[in-house]
Amino acid sequence: RIAYAEFLDSSGEFEAAEKEYKKTFEKSDGYIYGHFSYGNFLFSSGRLKEAEREYREALRIFSEKPGTIAYLNDFRFSRECRENLSYVLIEEAAKSSDRIHAAEILMEAAELNPSSMVYEKSADIMMSYENYAEAEALYRLAAEANDGNSSRAAAGAGVASTRSGNLKKAAYYFNVALEKDPGNRQAKIYLEKIAAMLYRQQDGEKQKN
Fold first, then answer.
1. pLDDT(138) > 60
2. Are 123 and 160 in contact (CB under 8 A)?
3. What is the 3-state secondary structure (H, E, C) of 10-77?
4. Which residue in 7, 12, 41, 53 has the most C-beta neighbors within 10 A?
5. Angle, nearest 10°, between helix axes 69-95 and 116-128?
6. How far apart are CA 152 and CA 154, in angstroms?
7. Quick one: pLDDT at residue 33?
């Protein structure tokens, strides 16, 4: 039934696909791939809370399985399930008006899927909340993960440090970004601005003395 439900989904017959998914669970609720696939269906439909429920159910079933062949077969789906659940949580955090709740959601997303993409998207959300210290830490983790655009992530940490007023740390991050990618235009522009700002600061201190 899952294969048929996926076929209906890909054909644009969404109501019929959902009915097929539900029929599957009437026969057996302990089917990891079924919950994973239904979660994907709900996620693509923008039904985040329902998708989160299905992914969590798939992971719960997986955690209770013994180390059998079936367990090994389901391992790949559990890994993809954690990844997709992290993406759901990031979208939920982006829509949340509660900064503390959003930060808690993003922490769970990072635990589920410690990758540069998750760290960077989480950092972007923290920047929108003007939580620059948390954003800087997340961008730094994204750069250190080294499985994505580490230069862009390092530049993001530089922007966060600039916004928080720590110009020397910002200059360090932008230099790292340029080491990783000499063509990073954002890092070049910010580094030039920071150099001018630091020069003015130093010049002002000399005049006071």
1. yes
2. yes
3. HCCCHHHHHHHHHHHHHHCCCCHHHHHHHHHHHHHCCCHHHHHHHHHHHHHHHHCCCCCHHHHHHHHH
4. 41
5. 20
6. 5
7. 85
Instruction: For tokens 């235009």, name the residue.
Output: 185
Distances (CA, A) of 207 to 32, 157, 167, 196, 201: 70, 32, 20, 17, 10
d(CA 177, CA 188): 9
Q: Which residue has the higher pLDDT, 10 or 31?
A: 10
Q: Exposure of 126 by Cβ count < 10 A (0-12 exposed, 13-18 middle, 19+ buried)? A: buried
How many Å apart are CA 113 and CA 10, to the nearest integer? 27
Q: How many CB atoms lie within 10 A of CB 193?
A: 14
User: Do residues 147 and 115 touch, judged by C-beta distance below 8 A?
Assistant: yes
* pLDDT value for 71: 54
CA separation for the pair 23, 170 (Å, rounded): 55
Hey, what amino acid is at 187? A
User: Within 10 A of 167 (CB to CB), how many other CB atoms are there?
Assistant: 17
Q: How far apart are CA 26 and CA 14, in angstroms?
A: 19
**Reported pTM:** 0.78
DSSP 107-131: HHHHHH--SHHHHHHHHHHHHHTT-
